[in-house]
């Protein structure tokens, strides 16, 4: 149907959670008790799709957890101006994160002159591309969750100095100080309370107050959307 081309299928992937949304509501949810490969999650999603058979929009937008698309603070010398050189620095940093060359750079954010990049492991980008092709969807974008979260209007407050995102598969703390980004990540191998405790001690060590960090949670919720949080997946964000 022609109308399907005007609809967008939104897919969120973490290491233990997959959400599928067409329009404003979450239609399908796939959980795993332990972290799983992206291919495993997508296979489980296909099983659920075969049961419910929702009408998918023909354009696909993918949001990846901070575990699948980690934030990579970049130290770029002032004399490095060419885009190709900046990409090479990001690829070298991604190589250290993934212990293998990252095939797909999803985004690079410039914040106060301090670059912050992200890369996706080859097997992740390939799995998503194959899944979209199998369903006849045009892959419109792949973005890390922290890139989406950075659009929150609540971050524009003068007192806000960082962002913490709590997800099913981990918690990410991003802090910008003196023109440089720092990132701290705690995975799903510890409960959310323990993650919060570790990140709280890091904030204290950085002389940061809790009110100076925007802490948000991503997941299903029934409350009305918070206008100060991201518009993309707007029904799934809440302040922690």
How are the SSEs ordered, and which strands pair?
Blueprint: E1 8-13, E2 17-22, E3 25-31, H1 38-52, E4 59-64, E5 71-73, H2 83-98, E6 104-111, E7 114-120, H3 122-134, E8 138-144, H4 145-149, E9 162-167, E10 170-177, E11 180-187, H5 192-205, E12 213-218, E13 237-239
Parallel strand pairs: 1-4, 4-8, 9-12
Antiparallel strand pairs: 1-2, 2-3, 5-7, 6-7, 9-10, 10-11, 12-13
Explain this structure.
It contains 5 helices and 13 strands. The protein has helices spanning 38-52, 83-98, 122-134, 145-149, 192-205, and strands spanning 8-13, 17-22, 25-31, 59-64, 71-73, 104-111, 114-120, 138-144, 162-167, 170-177, 180-187, 213-218, 237-239. The protein starts with 7 loop residues before the first strand and ends with a strand. The model is unreliable at 109-113 (pLDDT under 50).
């Amino acid at each position: 149907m022609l109308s399907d081309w005007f609809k967008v299928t939104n897919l969120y992937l973490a290491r233990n959670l997959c959400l599928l949304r067409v329009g404003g509501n979450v239609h399908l949810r796939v959980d795993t008790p332990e972290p799983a490969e992206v291919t495993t999650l997508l296979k489980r999603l296909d099983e659920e799709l075969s049961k419910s058979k929702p009408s998918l929009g023909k354009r696909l937008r993918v949001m990846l957890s901070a575990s699948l698309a980690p934030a990579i603070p970049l130290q770029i010398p002032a004399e490095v101006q060419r885009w190709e050189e900046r990409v090479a620095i990001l690829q070298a940093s991604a190589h250290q994160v993934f212990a293998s060359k990252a095939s797909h750079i999803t985004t690079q954010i410039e914040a106060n002159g301090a670059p912050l990049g992200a890369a996706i492991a080859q097997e992740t980008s390939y799995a998503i591309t194959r899944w979209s092709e199998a369903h006849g969807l045009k892959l419109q974008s792949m973005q890390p969750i922290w890139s989406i979260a950075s659009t929150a209007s609540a971050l524009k407050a003068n007192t806000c100095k960082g962002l913490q995102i709590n997800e099913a598969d981990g918690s990410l703390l991003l802090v910008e100080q003196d023109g440089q980004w720092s990132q701290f990540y705690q995975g799903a191998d510890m409960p959310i309370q323990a993650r919060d405790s570790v990140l709280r001690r890091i904030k204290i060590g950085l002389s940061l107050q809790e009110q100076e960090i925007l802490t948000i949670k991503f997941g299903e919720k029934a409350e009305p959307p918070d206008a100060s949080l991201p518009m993309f997946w707007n029904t799934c964000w809440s302040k922690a």
